[in-house]
Target: Dihydrofolate synthase/folylpolyglutamate synthase
Amino acid sequence: MDDLNRGGSTAPLATYTEAVDWIKSLIPFGIRPGLDRIQMLMDKLGNPHRRLKFIHVAGTNGKGSTCAFLTSALIQSGYSVGTFTSPYITKFTNRFQYNNTDISEETLVELVNQLRPLVQEISETEFGSPTMFEVTTAVAILFFAGVSCPDVVVWETGLGGRLDVTNIVTPIVSVITNVGHDHMDILGDTLEKIAMEKAGIIKTGVPVVSCVTQPEVVAVLKEKAAACRSTLYLAGEDFSYEANGIREDVQTFHFKGPFRSLELGIVMKGEHQISNAAAAMMVLEVLRQYMAFMLEDEDMLEGLRHAFWAGRLEEVSKSPRIVLDGAHNPEGAESLAKSLPQLYQYGKLNLLMGMLSNKHHESYFKHILPIVDTLILTEPDFQNKMDAENLQVIAESLREKYAKENLAIIVEHNWGKALQLLKSITAEDDLAVVSGTLYLISDVRGTLLQQPDTEKGW
Model:
């Protein structure tokens, strides 16, 4: 890698494109779990993260949606909120938001120029260059601590928890939405191992909220919380939620917590979103009860009701009907397969999907194949993509046991052509779904919504 990409050039980066390109140049350093490099960066900057109040959100699925619920409810309640999430759907600046507004391109360039010489210094040590995600996390901290200064930061983990870069912070509340089979090449090959990584965000004395259900995962969280002397608010034990149905596109549910009960409604689709909203509600109750947050019921409920998160059961076209959902692991596929018949009436279901190569594809197909009439397999325009033919081999091997009769499986490597094919075969009373990696969802969404500035959602 040349000196410019490694940060060797002393000339400041002049444009937004140059700044993002420089961050992208760090992608080849890969995912390197550990906090050494980010801690060195923070030390050089005077540890600005220590000035902020974080709500740290981990989990296999539902992290982004839970962040959206928290952000919306807190803003509606009069608090200023920083939100850090990944990956993004439309543009790199989506990762860093203040009151639901992206960081400006000019501010991003300034912060990247501040970080670049420090990244170069660290790259010359035995620790090697900070990674793309480490630098991105540092940008977020600088933006929140030195530019926007929000009352609270909703802070999503990147991968896992224990060794995730975001774990540099000590939050006021931790959230673990759920634990499932994802990133098993890095986090471990059993739910217990994955749970131990997620539980790594639990800090001494910091309350933690979770909706995990598997007994072995519950046991891991309880043990970790006890060791940290942290109060664990667990769904099914310390709080509960029960769906009441859908009225005028609003899912309603009953929330019962340790302090009181409430009736809530959300416009985000899918039964699984009730779990995410309930977790957010429990966090808000902890903030209200123990941390002197002024949260009026009317504001909280209004904020939760209107929360939105792109690419999650999002209907982006009426004719033909096209729904985007970033389900990319077995648990996500199970939620998608359960939600579609509940939410939509349709003749045939046509599904376009593309995946990265490090996912649990066989279990994904076991949930999806029983409900699909036509399956179009494509490839995201991104590194580490899964070959469409390899997906086809897996799907065909499961056809006899799991697939609907007369399932059609089509391979089209070019996602753009695959999208056109999906549109052409979907009749007025059919439903088209695009699912799989968010890198594919990002491109498809930008195309369908005619967003010319859509970038790659890494």
